[in-house]
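re: ur question from yesterday

yeah so i grabbed the chain u mentioned. its 196 aa long if i counted rite. heres the sequnce exactly as i have it in my notes:
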Amino acid sequence: MFGYEFYIDTTRCIGCQSCMKACEECETHRGVSMINFDYIDRPNTIATAAFVCMHCADPTCAQVCPADAIKVGEDGVVQSALKPRCIACSNCVLACPFGIPKLVPERELMMKCDMCYDRTSIGKRPMCATVCPSQALAYVRPEEIAATRREKPSNVFRFGNQQVTTKVFMMTPNAEEIRLDVVDYMWEGEAVEVFQ
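ran it thru and got these structure tokens back, copy pasting raw so excuse formatting
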């Protein structure tokens, strides 16, 4: 679908898990959901978030694959590992800064969101985006996002000193880039422990 982009807005997720069920129906996933669903701060809130592969411009998962099993299409979609090549080493799972790829042991294969390539390549929206009732996962034109959302989309993430640019956009209150540093969370956790 030319001109459409994928957007994630974690503040809109209502935890219904419709995206996970729809993802299982995608032909390329063969009954396995590729949505990463998580509870944000389970002890303190019911907030949830659903994530798809961010489809990095320079994907770490493909860089660390010793079997060259992970390919990037001309449209920037990072595919799941190719079955004949994947050796199920889990390098991609460990290397992804977003924690997206999954090793499916019974298939001895790394699988991840491929943006429902069987659908998007013929002009349809990804399954998860068609069923999300709150539009936490949306596959729309940029002008629609600009007209209907207060938040701004960003596809630049910073992990410490590493900058990662992605095909998928994350909605954010006003940042041009989203900073994620594990050290920040380690300090926060230590501070909580100290003051409890």
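noticed a couple things. Helices lie at 18-24, 60-63, 91-95, 117-120, 127-131, 142-148, 182-195. also Strands lie at 5-8, 36-39, 48-51, 102-104, 109-111, 137-140, 152-159, 162-172, 178-179.
anyway ttyl
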